[in-house]
Amino acid sequence: MAAITSDNHGLRLVTRYVVLTLIAIIFVFPLIFMVMSSFKPDLQLLRDTSGIRAFLPVGDISLNNYVAAFERAPVALFVFNSVLVTGVTVLLSLLLCSMAAFSFVFLQWRGRNVLLSIIIATLIVPFETIAIPLLLLVSKLPWIGFDGFTIGWLNSYRVQIIPWIADGLTIFLFVQFFKDLPRDLIEASRVEGASWWQIYTKVVMPLSGPVIATAAILKFLVMYNQYLWPLIVVQEETYRPVMVGLQYFFQLNTAWGEVMAYLTVITVPVLTFYLILQRAFIASIASTGVKG
Amino acid sequence: MASKLTTSNRAGWGFALPGFGLLALFIVVPFFFAFFLSLTNQRLISPNPTEFVGLDNYRDLLSISVLSIPPERDDAGQIIRDDDGEPTYARVRTFTRNNPDFPQYAGMREWFRWHSGDTAKVVVATDVVFWKSLRNTLMFVLVVAPVQGALALGLALLINQRLRGINVFRTIYFMPVVVSIVVVSLLWRFLYADDGLLNNILHALSFGLFEGRDWLGDENTALGAIKAMSIWQAVGFHMVIWLSGLQTISPTLYEVASIEGASKWQAFRYVTWPGLRNTAVLVLIVITMQAFALFAQIDVMTNGGPLDSTTTVVFQAVERGYGKQDISGGSTISVILFLIVLSISLIQRYLTREK
Asked: Which residue of A49, B15, B162, B342 has the smallest Cβ count within 10 Å?
């Protein structure tokens, strides 16, 4: 590197940044277009696509599309449903998957290796291949709730939450992380008379910040972006999440301004969240790469 | 193992059971259930009891055959030709409908045909739409897996240099990954529209030469358009996995290479690429599994059309299992999909094994 003359170096540097920026534009232009269009009336939105104006907040700018979108569909309800389902699933998943992993790594018990092998084997089963039999299964499952004993889980929050709590990848991530924790620490606590539950809550989990963040982010992305599953198990508006709620905007003559407003409402919070925590997001995807 | 860490069956099961129980009930059970259901005529809601039908579902989906149809001849044995001079043929349905001479073709339909000499070779299948979905899915995987993997590696190499502000670019390249594929699909439906952004950009870039086309409405371009969008959306995901692979390569190897006077290409060929071996296997397997699961893009953008040119295996499984409430048909497709994914993963692992 040092041998390169300064002029040449400067030029190369500029070229590099130009290339990087051009690629960045490719990745970001549809999103900028989405946000800008959400403020424009349909006619102008379509006209603006002929030039650079498509990416600029110019012309007749207003929040009318947002007002219309909220009138067309119960947007707030959809957002609430998604946040509820995502939040509860992430929390329960962190709890139950970390407990299972704790047991696999630190406790000795019969059947342990068989169960762990089964869990690892599920990693090669794409959800799409079990969706249809799972649909039949949940339609027959019993439930005891406020209204007594019922059969069938369709059209509910539980059908969107419970099947998604435990998954092979989350358990696997915790297992990998726990394996690297110092075993002496756990043994010492055990000698001092701590129960397994105390070791789990007081010793292991407080040390597990990084893997908790990773597992939470991965689960969050999966849950908030759910589409196929709620599409087939939730027909009632009351329980619909945001991605399925999009169907309200598929019309014969699509009101593109409203569509863009709705897309912006459901996407910008996630993007903001990502931009704030981008290091953690990227680290969590990178850590799935360890599984090879 | 220390004495306090010896067997603790009760605690062990107690901690593992809630998580494992859910995983078993909602992943392992439906997985085996799919195999069982594919041997029945189960429907989502039906007054009739479920019957065991053996391999009928597989036969209905997979039966395929090639029909050789000789050209029609007149009484003198001359081939009858139409106005364009092409030979004429008996219609396929004369073989596939109520023809006692060809019971094996009963109920089949034409998928496509080619000519061998004057004989028409017609591929007929019981379930042409399923075969199309299989072909579309394979075409999707065959293009998306290598292209997305290679582009992601290119981006990772680009991002892996020491430059001020490089993290900003990494953040931007990764951005589409956190956006739902449903949102992306709807957005791109607009970009691909007749009067959409893409046509306008191409029109401007070609100084008006490009006429514009309905990308998703044309059977020749629809699947290609979906491939391009899918690559755009997920390439950042694989870039990050390549990046974590790149960062495991020891910098001293590059120092040695540069002392030895290796060119950039040689450094890549003999240092970087061998170091990325395991990452490459992983990226390829993950992309392949994701690509086989292609569904949301289709559901939002084309619904399988035009003329079944974008229908996919998962789309068919959902359309039958959920849309038509034909659980057994959907499950059969699911089992076939799983077997394909499994065999491709095994082949990829075999081909990329340590020699």
From this structure: B162
